[in-house]
Design brief:
Layout: H1 7-11, H2 16-26, H3 55-60, H4 95-100, H5 135-140, E1 170-173, H6 194-200, E2 204-207, E3 209-210, E4 223-224, E5 241-242, H7 243-255, E6 262-266, H8 273-282, H9 301-306, E7 311-315, E8 327-328, H10 329-332, E9 334-335, E10 352-353, E11 360-363, E12 367-368, E13 371-372, H11 374-380, H12 383-397, E14 403-406, H13 414-422
Parallel strand pairs: 1-2, 1-14, 2-6, 6-7, 7-8, 9-11, 11-14
Antiparallel strand pairs: 3-4, 4-5, 9-10, 12-13
Helix pairs in contact: 12-13
């Protein structure tokens, strides 16, 4: 039997130090393993086989960290193996997303179509061109869902085109024509006329047509004025407005807008239906009137605009004859009480009409001796005051006010209140930031 190479040394009792030196230099023991020869012991080497891949990474990628020819597949060269890489081909589209979008996750030249660059491929994107209108909605209406220039906006936003008429809040001016700019000398309801009202966003108008006198009572004689509830008083004591010119101006402003719906609430007690219809027809209003079947759902604002039926005409007194485009207001809508003298008297209760209808008017003006009061208007039209009342009535009634009618629309911020309300889907939503009048 061969003895170990150091046996005789031990037998001769060679000094211990010499034995150790001999063992270290004789090759009887080898140095620590270093598979890749990089001078780092395998026990300390994070890449034992020297193939450029971390040992732990290779284990996770199911390759052998002790064989340099066994390396993970890494198409995009980002040192994250394809097995673990959420974007194998490095085209910035996730593998699963590419599969869903029917492109090749292993080919960086095969990338999903994304017209609006929102990182949702067109085949999965409900609004492929990013114009705020769903693809199917656009296709059904002849719009190109892959063309961001082929779209419609309603009241300033494309998203509002999807809202139904009864799910939008319109600012409304009471006795819209009763202004110094229109020639009314007393008993005015506003300081500025139609142009300013339109420019600021008023889209609903309360109008009072009359014949100026018993001698001027033909259909061509209809004017706007606000009659006093006093005996033996002519209807237009404080002046009158050319109703034909006023409505033609409204129609012209409407023609130059896009996607806006206009509503009229007409106090028609003194004008025959034929005369009112003539007035509306001659001014281009009647041809764009929407006919609503009582009990049927209201259409979207976008559909009303695209179909050219973008005016809704309500009349306070229903005629015996059938004027289908003149909707009886208190069958199709309802309103809150009006003409109170103090803010404490204002409620969300039923004033006139059918409270089961979703379209309704929140009357928001106060009177002094039966006349409009600018100081009181400034009080109740204040942004926070008006918003608080609108939200309270929304909560109480169960659906948003369709119209907020005011006197002295320029006193306070009725249009900004409606902007805020229209950004909300429910009264309990977080209230959006206040958009001040000077922004």
């Amino acid at each position: 039997m061969r003895r170990p190479c150091y046996g005789r040394l031990m037998e001769r009792k060679t000094p211990t130090v010499l034995v150790i030196l001999f063992i270290l230099t004789s090759g009887c023991i080898s140095s620590a393993p270093d598979l890749d020869g990089d001078g780092i012991q395998d026990s300390s080497d994070s890449d034992i086989d020297g193939d450029g891949w971390d040992n732990d990474m290779e284990l996770n990628c199911s390759t052998d960290h002790l064989i340099p020819t066994s390396v993970p597949s890494d198409i995009d060269g980002d040192l994250v193996c394809d097995f673990l890489d959420s974007d194998d081909d490095g085209d910035l589209w996730g593998d699963f997303t590419e599969v869903d979008c029917s492109t090749d996750p292993l080919d960086n030249q095969s990338v999903p179509e994304d017209y609006d660059e929102d990182r949702i491929c067109d085949s999965l994107d409900l609004d492929a061109d990013g114009d705020g209108l769903p693809n199917d909605w656009e296709q059904a209406r002849g719009l190109d869902y892959l063309d961001s220039e082929d779209y419609i906006t309603c009241h300033g936003m494309s998203e509002y085109c999807l809202r139904t008429y009864d799910d939008f809040t319109f600012p409304e001016s009471h006795n819209s024509f009763s202004t110094p700019e229109d020639g009314i000398i007393a008993g005015i309801n506003h300081l500025t006329g139609l142009q300013s009202q339109w420019d600021d966003g008023i889209r609903a108008f309360m109008l009072d047509p009359y014949h100026p006198s018993e001698l001027n009572n033909e259909k061509e004689d209809v004017v706007f004025c606000h009659a006093l509830s006093l005996p033996n008083t002519p209807p237009c004591l404080f002046g009158s407005v050319d109703a034909f010119a006023w409505l033609r101006s409204l129609n012209s402003l409407h023609n130059n807008s896009s996607g806006d719906v206009v509503s009229l609430l007409i106090q028609n007690y003194q004008v025959p239906g034929e005369h009112l219809e003539y007035l509306l027809n001659e001014t281009g209003i009647l041809e764009r009137a929407y006919i609503h079947e009582l009990g049927s759902p209201w259409p979207s604002i976008g559909d009303m605009s695209l179909s050219g039926t973008d005016v809704v005409i309500f009349i306070e007194m229903e005629y015996e004859d059938n004027f289908t485009k003149l909707l009886p207001a208190w069958k199709h809508t309802w309103d809150t009480p009006y003409g109170e003298s103090s803010q404490d008297e204002m409620t969300c209760d039923l004033g006139r009409g059918d409270a089961n209808q979703p379209v309704w008017h929140m009357n928001n003006w106060l009177s002094t001796f039966g006349l409009s009061d600018a100081n009181k208007a400034a009080q109740v039209n204040n942004y926070h005051t008006l918003l608080e009342r609108a939200l309270l009535c929304w909560e109480t009634v169960g659906n948003r006010p369709t119209f907020i009618g005011v006197d002295y629309w320029g006193q306070g911020e009725v249009t900004n209140v409606t902007i805020t309300l229209n950004k909300m889907s429910d009264w309990s939503d977080e209230i959006p930031p206040h958009q001040s009048s000077d922004t």
